[in-house]
Amino acid sequence: MADFLTGIAFFMIIEGLVYALAPSILKRMAEMLPQIPESQLRVSGLVAVALGVVMVWFIRGG
């Protein structure tokens, strides 16, 4: 459970940094989001999940 909460904390840190350091870029990305096809968003999300799982696996000594 501690690892899960640490992961959530890191996620919040990274999200906070994006909002704090590059709010204009974040706004532009949010404006472009409706123009991107759902299938492309879905594939991008699945790729991000897969990369995250692989990274955790390697970090933990897979």
TrEMBL record:
InterPro entries named in the record: DUF2065
Q: Where are the transmembrane segments?
A: 6-22, 43-59
Q: Which UniProt keywords apply?
A: Membrane, Transmembrane, Transmembrane helix
Q: What is this protein called?
A: DUF2065 domain-containing protein
